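Form 7-S
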Amino acid sequence: MSLVYSCSGGGDGPDGGSNEAPSQPTQVYPDNNTLCLENTIDFQWNPSVDAENQVITYKLQVSENNLFSTIAEERTTTSTSTIITLEKGKSFYWRVKAIDSENTESSFSSIYQFLTEGNGVSNHLPFSPELISPAFNSLVNDLTTTLSWSASDVDNDNLTFDVYLDTFNPPSTKVSENQTATTYDANLSSATKYFWKIVVKDEHGAQSLGQTWNFRVN
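Output:
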């Protein structure tokens, strides 16, 4: 007597195979570093592709900081656009991801920043600074570390920066003032946690305060 064994593959997909995440959506509007003349904004992105042809839902998030530690607005939709009304005269960041019908998620899209027009504004605030390094909440091995950030201004004004660095939060010690470089070489102590932030200033006196970042020295 012969015995025949049959093995079938298991998985999360509708056909018994593994379920792939949808492709990452890409933003259309508002583009990165955009000045939005209206504060009611029609967010748009390109559709994602799902290998199993499942229904795709999109989750859009808007935040006032590029780490999305707080969410100003969040929307879930099956469309590739959604309209949100935001506060005037502020800078925001947005991102979107795709979710299939089995709740398998793509990674978030790139983070785009934009500015909503204020009432009667002739000079706009600089965008809030964006962290480059050290990475947020990272571990640093060197006692001399370069703090690095980026910043931009929709009016293309010349920008200067104040750097605050401390071992407590919020940092209040101004270690550099009115510098034009987007780096600062910090002398640090071992086994210490540091907090730092940047104030961005344009040539007309408008200022944007960055969020507080932190890192730890080994």
